């Protein structure tokens, strides 16, 4: 998410160049799930990301067949397809740390007690209509919880992305899929690009183009310091990682400007 307003990718805070900042910003991918007692997309992972001082926490959301948004990466949990099933078939499923699978409502309620930027990834749904409906429900929920000022929306689905932009023009919306240039994203109204590092390596000119257009740049999923340094030196504002504690320590040592 190199103009800073992730939004996670992800323009994400107050539109200030990275060079003016102390150091690059770290987004905990699915929270700090490698900490003890935690697991991916759990509320514990969210809390742990806040405790270590991560800038943000990314989390994944699916809509059940009866329109309940739940937090999980995969489309299935214990063999149950989340998007094709009612919430009643999902609600008692446990994560590997023993937590019940959280609804997005529960996750956001817990997030209100943190200082984290919330990187809300809406997973792709089966049809354009369903993607737009999921985006609408997501925006309404974030507004209800009064978390819009610190929530960025990210998605692989262009229909959902356009709907986020239409329904929440005040929000930062980042695109994940990787096929659109910064110019195309700017024209569509996205706040920035949130692309895998391989995409950015294949299109290194996109760093400068995004900066020229005032777009934010987030790169995922970066789990070693050499790669992090490469992406930061190229111009990434935000780094999404599975190892946020390790990367925070390395960035603090490497980019300490005092």
């Amino acid at each position: 998410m190199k103009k800073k307003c992730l939004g996670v990718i992800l323009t994400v805070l107050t539109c200030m160049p990275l060079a003016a900042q102390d150091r690059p910003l770290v987004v905990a991918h699915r929270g700090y799930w490698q900490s003890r007692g935690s697991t991916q997309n759990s509320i514990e992972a969210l809390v742990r990301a806040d405790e270590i001082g991560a800038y943000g926490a990314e989390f994944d959301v699916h809509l059940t067949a009866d329109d309940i948004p739940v937090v999980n990466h995969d489309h299935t949990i214990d063999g149950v397809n989340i998007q094709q099933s009612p919430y009643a078939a999902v609600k008692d499923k446990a994560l590997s740390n023993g937590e019940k699978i959280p609804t997005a409502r529960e996750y956001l309620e817990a997030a209100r007690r943190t200082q984290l930027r919330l990187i809300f990834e809406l997973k792709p749904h089966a049809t354009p209509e369903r993607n737009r409906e999921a985006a609408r429900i997501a925006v309404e929920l974030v507004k209800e919880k009064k978390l819009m000022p610190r929530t960025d929306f990210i998605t692989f689905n262009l229909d959902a992305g356009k709907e986020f932009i239409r329904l929440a023009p005040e929000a930062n919306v980042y695109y994940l899929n990787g096929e659109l240039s910064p110019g195309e994203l700017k024209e569509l109204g996205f706040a920035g690009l949130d692309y895998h590092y391989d995409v950015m390596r294949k299109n290194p000119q996109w760093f400068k183009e995004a900066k020229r257009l005032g777009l934010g740049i987030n790169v995922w999923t970066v789990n070693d310091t050499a790669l992090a340094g490469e992406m930061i030196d190229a111009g990434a504002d935000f780094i999404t990682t599975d190892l946020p504690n390790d990367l925070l320590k390395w960035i603090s040592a490497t980019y300490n400007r005092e």
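The CA atoms of residues 228 and 245 lie 14 Å apart. Confidence is low (pLDDT under 50) at residues 1-20.
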